[in-house]
Design goal:
By secondary structure, this protein is of the alpha/beta class. It has 9 helices and 8 strands. A hairpin with a 2-residue loop joins strand 4 and strand 5. Helix 1 packs across helix 9, helix 2 packs across helix 4 and helix 7 crosses helix 8. The chain starts with a strand and ends with a helix.
Length: 223
């Protein structure tokens, strides 16, 4: 099995690029950020702040999260309900950053991620995939872009959403970068053996082709 670990900060394009490459290569795509978003979404709906560590831990015993692949797309199922389209708001994004710093949450989701990786050729993206979740991945990539460019991309995705401004998104991204890089558990960092891919001045098509080439080279080495 070939495991590809793609790490990087919020808004770097990890999800959209990983999805596209997975389709082209026939790999399973695993969006780990969606798992943490699902926990945050559930907590917010229950009136529990993502900063309330003990409250979040208590919720885990009643939460069942699964990943399903339908028509080539990953869907996130929380307690039998498809929440894939409900976990992409700025509020849930910030909440995901909070809950992902809780060791019990990471343990809760860790086994699910490892099981999928053992059974499939996968592309898994997140914050600590190459450093913690899949330290033996055959290919590790650290995907990044400057904060302003990441904010522009996120704003384009959410354009038309009430109350969303570029300034707010940029502020959220900078704050999330700080949270992710400085958290005590599994902070965001580039693995020593990861390939750095800065997408600031690249089109999405260029990035997809570049990563596809890296995977092809990895497959050739593994043969």
């Amino acid at each position: 099995m070939i495991n590809v670990a793609i790490d990087g900060p919020a808004g770097a394009g990890k999800s959209s690029i990983s999805k596209a490459v997975a389709v082209k290569k026939g790999y399973i795509y695993v969006d780990t950020g969606a798992l943490y978003r699902a926990v945050a979404f559930y907590a917010l709906n229950k009136g529990v702040s993502p900063d309330n560590t003990s409250g979040i831990i208590k919720l885990l015993s009643e939460l069942d999260i699964k990943l399903e692949h339908r028509d080539g797309q990953q869907r996130v199922i929380a307690n039998g309900i498809d929440v894939s389209d409900k976990i992409r708001t700025p509020e849930v994004s910030m909440g995901a950053s909070g809950v992902s710093a809780i060791p019990e949450v990471r343990t809760f989701l860790f086994d699910l991620q490892k099981k999928i990786a053992l059974e499939n050729n996968i592309i898994m993206d997140g914050r600590d995939i190459g450093t913690v979740v899949l330290p033996n991945a055959q290919l590790k990539i650290f995907l990044t872009a400057d904060a302003e460019e990441r904010a522009r991309r996120r704003f384009a995705e959410l354009k038309g959403t009430e109350g969303v401004t570029f300034e707010n998104i940029l502020e959220d991204i900078i704050k999330r970068d700080e949270n992710d890089m400085n958290r005590a558990v599994s902070p965001l960092r580039q693995a020593e053996d990861a390939v750095l891919v800065d997408t600031t001045d690249m089109t999405i098509e260029q990035v997809i082709l570049h990563i596809e080439k890296l995977i092809n080279e990895t497959e050739n080495k593994e043969r």
